[in-house]
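Posting this for the archive.
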Amino acid sequence: MLRHMLLTTLPLCCLLAACAPPTETPPQGPGEQPAAYMALGTEPGWTLEITPSRLNYDGDYGETKIMVPNPGAKPSTNGRTYATDRLSAVVEQKPCSDGMSDRRYSDTVRVVADGKAVQGCGGKILPPDTLAGSNWTFVSIGGVAVAADRPTSLQFDGNRLSGNAGCNRFSGGYSVDGVTLKAGPLMATEMACPGAGMTQEAAFFKLMASPVSLTFADDGTLILTGEGGKTAVLRRVI
C-alpha cells in the first residue's frame, strides 16, 4: 500500500552559491587552528596541503613526497603563488573540474614539484549548476548521524526526485522556480523497519513537511534547514 505525502513549497537559498575568494587564514576563535587549503589532481594522482607552516605534496600516486616550509603567499594574477626550491604552487581563482567526475572546485591550481608540472583543482567544492542529475546520501537528520546499517539516498532525475531516508522508498515530482523548490505529491511505501531506520525517516518527513532552506557548505555537503533550525545534511555521490 502506498501513502501520499504532499510536501509544502520548499524555498531554496543559494542554489548557485557565490564563489567567495578562499582565505589562507580565516579569523579563528581562541584555541582554533586555521583550516588547511587542499588541492588535488589526476593522471597522475596528486594532492597538495597548504598549512600556515608547511606545504605538503604527495604526487605520482603517492610515490613522490615533498614537505617544505610555507614561504608565504605572494599575490599573483587572480590568485596567489607559493615558491620554494623544490615545490611551487599557483592558486588561481578560476572554477575547475577534477577531470574524473562532474565535481567542480573554486580554484585552478598548478604545481611544479622537483621540476615536474601538474595541474588540478583546489578550494571550495562548488554546488551543482542544477539539482537535476545529482545524487546524494544522508549524513545526518535532525542533528543525529544516520544509522550506518541503513542505506540512504536522494536523487534528482529530470523533473522527479526519489530516495530513501532509512526505511521506505519515496518518490514524486519536483520543480525549481528561481530559488524555490516545489516537491510532491510524494509517495512512500509503508514497510516497518527495525532500529533507527524509521526514527530517522520520520524526522526527515517531519522536516520536509514545512519549507526548508537549502545551502551548500564549502566541502560540497548539502544542508536542508527547516523550522526550528532542524537540518538534514547530505553528501553528494559522484
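The CA atoms of residues 4 and 161 lie 15 Å apart. The first strand starts at residue 3 and ends at 5.
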